[in-house]
Specification:
The complex is a heterodimer of chains A (671) and B (515). Chain A has 25 helices and four strands. Chain A is mainly α. In chain A, helix 1 runs antiparallel to helix 2, helix 3 runs antiparallel to helix 11 and helix 13 runs antiparallel to helix 14. In chain B, the strands form three sheets. A two-stranded antiparallel sheet of chain B has the order 1-4. In chain B, strands 2-3 form a two-stranded antiparallel sheet. The chains are: A mainly alpha (671), B mainly alpha (515).
Chain lengths: 671, 515
């Protein structure tokens, strides 16, 4: 048996090798690309070799001592969820790495790119396989660092790497972002959540004295009842999950993900499909069964507090799903549409986990969690494909705006087929993989009696169909609104770029096709081997009137797009020019519900105010010590000097006063 | 355990002897001196590492050369778990900064000569440097307040002269300012210490025979104990530049020659934090327990205040100086929690800050040397394109300050927060404390990454920032080694953690803290 530690250690060693090569002056980009692809391939193969054993119910768990007294070890814990995540992360990253070797060819920072790419993959694999919170946190922070570096990869901030319309402002806050700015945003936004996670760890340390995840699961009733008795269980769980909310870009932390589009497009694919944003969902998948089981056994106040927590998670997920989908409706940047869509789909996953936590029946609760896991997988596959296609599209016309793209279907048949396959999977239509998983999440919301959120999720599914089709129709089947500024290279992508996304798009279809015929059951079986799953799950979609209703609604929204654009030829641009209502609505959505502006005005503005104020305070302290006190002493010295003017009569008088004072004091003390 | 040879005294005298030889060496041949001195300064690192491997950190190593003086106590040197990482921090930084100093000081001295001044030679620099370095080492090894105070004063003289000889700006005035301020701190400490020593009969704070802390002696002082403790603690606060007493630091650290800033900022001021845990805490446990929340809030004030004021700075070195104030807040926070894990975090914070801040001051120094004294952040920008290795090392430095893995900063951050939450009553204080911790840690992250961007990313904002391109040399490679140490100790934390914990548990037991 191969040691599972190699799954995450190999990419780290690859990154280390690249760092050493770079310092020793090697600059050949083929070595960098090769090392990245090679090390990720090895970890993908090891993950694949080990998974069948997990599937058959053997937990793979190895440990190397590090800080044993705190339960912090290099422990690789490969249960159903770990194996599943390792597979998704490693294989997707591999395809994206192969794509990158072509996409980043000749880039001035290609060496740095592959270093952080490999480091990113290693961190993500560590995060999903760690057996304790601290090790998981290390992977967690590693993904944060790598995303910071890769989002800001083109840190010289040329205008073509920005995101947003140059010059656009909302309430005076600029709505365009340079790569270096986006990098800082990404790391600071997610860092808020990470600190929540540190505090969560502090609580575990305080109450249980261990960071080991299986032990945390075993002792769940203990620490949960303790926190419940203090009345802070809901708050503590939320603080602990803050990292997940921030990393997975749930409201109000979603802003960083949107501007993360300044990175090279394969990085967007990596962040959205395989690493980073999936970390938060993984966290929820990992811990929600633990919370659920603990609450279930305790009942009473602990159960109520945990349900309160799951309600909040479901609400945040549902709201994020809807909010981000509306923003995607009006966006003009291809990558941005997919970015909004990612946050929206992650919202579905959080909704699924939150709803599952509210279900009284155990096997249904686990099913809800498994549905979120399934959606994570299908999203990873189709979103990677979409971003990789977007990368080629942007490269082809040298512009990130869909206004400059058009008629691609005439020149690239395979790409057109691929984007339709991936897009329809995102829309959630059968028989694509996205259908089965999204349906599972929506079903969980219904079963948990979250009527409002259920309705929101169904409505959002229609919006998803609409914005996805809009992007595809605009780019592939309509002439561009304005021709690109540079000469477009309209032909199929080179093989190393074409194949990865074609494979992914077909995978989205094939998984969907085989889902009802055994794949769904296999997936359920693997996920059933996860820590905390006390009952085996069976993911199955019931086709009833509601299901058909949802399919019809999504299909209608998908078909509405070609009807509007191609048949009725509605001119949205002039509608926007003439109608004030349309413009207000458009701007509201286009400026992302003004949330970015509010964050900048209130939080950033508040801090800037505080900084200015403290600058004055510091100046005052400085002046007090270095001007005030010296001046005081100068004055005192002047005063004393003026008393000594060489007049004996005055000296005699001082002497008399002094003696008098002394006598008085003696009298007061002894008298 | 008593060592068979006086290794600790040797590690103090060797660099000093090299420094003395250096006085006679011509400036052109100074490399030999700098490299030998670096090698000898690495001795403490080696010693502590061997002790760690052999599991001796909990027990400690005592130097066989000692003197017993009536009324003073035992003048001896020792190193144990609590001081181990502090000694390591000094050793790493002083050794590699001495190599870094060669190109830096050559340029500085030439620059001063061009300006028509007559600075003392490189030999003088390296002599003062060695004196400064070994005085800090001696301070860490000390087991007796008198010896501690002697070494404390000994750090002051060479650092004062180094600022006055080779500093920037209004350097003579600032050197005096530095001298007076740290003397205020030192004298406060001294007066408390003298009162203590005359009433107790000796000045020992570590019993070298058993390697146990002197504790419970505060009872001999009666009602005066609180005032004595206050004097000593406030004295250390001035040294440490806690909020309110921090005003001298930005001047001194910004205007010192940069290699000296890299020693002053993390190493010297952090020693006061070490002394808090080593000397005052075991002797005055009641005082620390009474003022626990005052100190915790003072620490938060220092962290947030220092961090926010740092964000306002436009001078690279002044920004780093304010960030040091902020980082000292973390150290105070760790000690103030009065929990073993919190104090462990504070001592690890010493090392992580030493490494991180040294890297950053050295980064500032690279640009001062190569880009004609460029230190105004407003004129920087885009430097990563021309200085990729320096940029990478600066990022590593910032990661130490923020507490991101794979740097040792992560451990200090985690342990200090763990220690803090051991004190938090969940019912009433949970949410306020969570908010405070988030704000404090976010301020550190904000000033780090915002300034990383201002300095290294975007486009150059002046001609001056585009004058040269990096050719990695002594400047960068000495930084690289310091940076690697931060990762090494991140991975190899176990023996140090246990050494620290063992000594702190012993201290708590003797001082009767925490039941």
């Amino acid at each position: 048996m191969i040691d599972p530690i190699w799954i995450w250690l190999t990419p780290y060693l690859g990154a280390l090798a690249l760092a050493i090569l770079w310092i020793s002056g090697v600059r050949d980009e083929r070595i960098y690309g090769g090392t990245a692809v090679g090390s990720i391939l090895i970890s993908a193969l090891i993950a694949t070799i080990l998974t069948p054993s997990v599937y058959h119910g053997h937990l793979i768990y190895t440990k190397y001592s590090w800080l044993p007294s705190l339960g912090i070890n290099f422990g690789t814990y490969m249960d159903g969820l770990g194996a599943f995540m390792a597979l998704v992360v490693s294989w997707l990253s591999l395809l994206i790495a192969i794509y990158s070797t072509e996409y980043m060819k000749g880039d001035w920072g290609v060496q740095r790119y592959f270093f952080f790419f490999t480091f990113f993959v290693g961190s993500m694999l560590l995060l999903v396989l760690a057996d304790n919170l601290v090790l998981m946190f290390i992977g967690w922070e590693g993904t944060g660092l790598a995303s910071y570096a890769l989002i800001g990869h083109w840190y010289t901030d040329e205008e073509e790497t920005w995101v947003g319309d140059p010059g656009r402002k909302a309430f005076g806050t600029p709505m365009y972002f340079e790569p270096s700015h986006s990098g800082v945003r990404a790391i600071l936004f997610t860092r808020v959540g990470d600190i929540g996670m540190i505090i969560g760890m502090a609580l575990f340390y305080m109450i249980t004295g261990t960071f080991n995840i299986p032990q945390i699961s075993e002792t769940a009733t203990g620490w949960m009842s303790f926190l419940a008795s203090k009345g802070v269980l809901t708050a503590a769980l939320l603080v602990f999950s803050l990292g997940a909310l921030a990393k997975s870009a749930q409201f109000p932390f979603h802003e960083w993900l949107v501007t993360a589009m300044t990175g090279p497009t394969p990085v967007s694919a990596l962040i959205h499909a395989a690493t980073m944003v999936k970390a938060g969902v993984y966290f929820m998948l990992r811990f929600s069964p633990i919370f659920y089981n603990g609450a279930e056994q305790l009942g009473g106040a602990a159960l109520a507090a945990t349900e309160h927590y799951f309600n909040i998670i479901a609400l945040l997920g549902g709201v994020t799903a809807f909010m981000m989908a509306t923003m995607a409706l009006v966006s003009r940047e291809l990558k941005l549409i997919f970015a909004f869509s990612t946050a929206s789909q992650l919202g579905y996953m959080f909704l699924g986990v939150g709803a599952a936590g509210l279900l009284a029946q155990k096997e249904m609760a686990y099913e809800g969690i498994a549905a979120s896991a399934a959606h994570l997988m299908s999203h990873a596959i189709f979103k990677a494909a979409l971003f990789l296609i977007a990368g080629w599209a942007i490269h082809a016309v040298h512009s990130r705006f869909i206004d400059n793209m058009g008629n691609f279907s005439k020149y690239m048949k395979i790409t057109t087929l691929s984007i339709w396959l991936a897009g329809l999977s995102l829309a959630g239509l059968p028989p694509f993989s996205g259908f089965w998983s999204k349906e599972g999440v929506i079903h969980a919301a219904q079963a948990a009696h979250l009527e409002n959120l259920w309705f929101l999720a169904v409505f959002t599914a229609g919006l998803t169909g609409f914005y996805t089709t809009r992007a595809i129709i605009r780019v592939f089947h309509m002439p561009p609104y304005e021709p690109p500024h540079h000469e477009a290279e309209l032909h199929e992508a080179p093989p190393r770029m074409l194949w990865p996304y074609t494979i992914l798009a077909f995978t989205a279809l094939i998984i969907g096709l085989v889902w009802p015929f055994g794949f769904g059951a296999d997936f359920s079986n693997l996920i059933s081997k996860t820590l905390g799953f006390e009952e085996p799950v069976k993911l199955a979609v019931e086709f009833n009137a509601t299901t058909y209703g949802i399919i019809t609604w999504v299909l209608a929204m998908v078909l509405l797009v070609p009807a509007l654009y191609l048949v009725m030829k509605v001119d949205f641009v002039s509608i926007l020019k003439t109608s004030k209502t349309a413009r207000i609505l458009h701007d509201f959505l286009y400026d992302r519900w003004y949330i970015n502006a509010l964050i900048y005005i209130i939080i950033v503005g508040g801090f800037i105010g505080a900084i200015d104020l403290l600058g004055y305070v510091d100046g005052f302290i400085d002046a007090f010590y270095h001007i005030g006190i010296p001046i005081a002493f100068i004055l005192i010295s002047k005063g004393f000097r003026s008393m000594h003017k060489g007049r004996p009569d005055l000296y005699l008088a001082y002497y008399a006063y002094g003696i008098g004072l002394l006598l008085l004091m003696l009298y007061l003390i002894w008298g | 355990m008593e060592a068979s040879i006086p290794v600790l005294w040797i590690s103090i005298f060797l660099p000093l002897i090299i420094g003395l030889i250096g006085l006679k060496v011509r400036d052109d041949d100074i490399e030999a001196i700098a490299y030998t001195m670096a090698a000898t300064l690495l001795l403490p690192l080696f010693l502590v590492a061997v002790a760690a491997v052999k599991g001796l950190l909990g027990e400690g190593i005592v130097d066989p050369w000692m003197a017993h003086l009536q009324g003073i106590g035992t003048l001896a040197l020792a190193v144990d778990g609590l001081s181990g990482l502090v000694a390591v921090g000094i050793s790493i930084v002083t050794a590699f900064v001495s190599i870094y100093s060669i190109p830096y000081m050559r340029t500085r001295i030439e620059e001063m000569k061009e300006a028509g001044e007559a600075p003392p030679s490189l030999g003088v620099y390296f002599f003062l440097y060695s004196l400064f370095a070994v005085a800090m080492l001696g301070l860490v090894y000390s087991t007796n307040m008198v010896l501690f105070y002697v070494f404390l004063e000994l750090t002051l003289v060479p650092s004062f002269l180094l600022i006055a000889y080779y500093g920037y700006g209004d350097r003579r005035k600032i050197a005096i300012l530095y001298f007076v301020w740290t003397h205020i701190g030192a004298v406060m400490f001294l007066s408390g210490m003298l009162y203590y020593g005359f009433h107790v009969g000796n000045f020992d704070y570590l019993d070298v025979a058993t390697m146990t802390p002197v504790a419970g002696t505060a009872n001999l002082l009666g009602a005066a104990a609180t005032y004595v403790a206050l004097l000593m603690v406030l004295g250390l606060f001035v040294k440490m530049a806690v909020f309110g007493f921090h005003m001298w630091l930005p001047y001194a650290h910004a205007e010192a020659p940069t290699p000296i800033s890299a020693l002053l900022s993390p190493n010297l001021i952090g020693l006061a934090g070490y002394a808090l845990a080593r000397i005052t805490l075991p002797i005055f446990p009641g005082f620390f327990a009474d003022y626990k929340w005052v100190f915790i809030y003072l620490a938060f004030t220092t962290i947030i205040y220092g961090g926010l004021v740092a964000l306002k700075q436009t001078d690279f070195k002044k920004f780093l100086a304010y960030s040091s104030v902020s980082q000292m807040g973390y150290m105070l926070l760790g000690v103030a929690t009065l929990t073993p894990v919190g104090i462990t975090g504070a001592m690890i914070q010493y090392l992580s800050h030493a490494i991180g801040k040294a890297l950053l001051f050295m980064t500032a120094g690279v640009f001062i040397t190569e880009l004609h004294g460029l230190r105004d952040i407003r004129l920087m920008g885009g430097l990563a394109r021309r200085y990729p290795l320096t940029a990478a090392l600066a990022l590593l430095g910032f990661m130490h300050l923020v507490g991101m893995p794979p740097t040792i900063g992560m451990w200090s951050e985690l342990f200090i927060v763990f220690g803090l939450f051991k004190n938090v009553s969940l019912t009433a204080e949970f949410i306020p404390m969570v908010t405070l911790v988030i704000v404090a840690l976010m301020v550190s992250a904000a000033y780090s990454f915002v300034n990383m961007r201002r300095i290294f990313y975007n486009k150059p904002r002046s001609e001056q920032a585009t004058l040269k391109t990096e050719t990695p040399g002594a400047l960068q490679y000495s930084m690289l080694f310091i940076g690697i140490m931060g990762i090494v100790f991140f991975l190899w934390i176990n023996p140090y953690y246990h050494g620290l914990l063992e000594v702190i548990h012993k201290t708590f037991l003797f001082a009767g803290i925490g039941g």
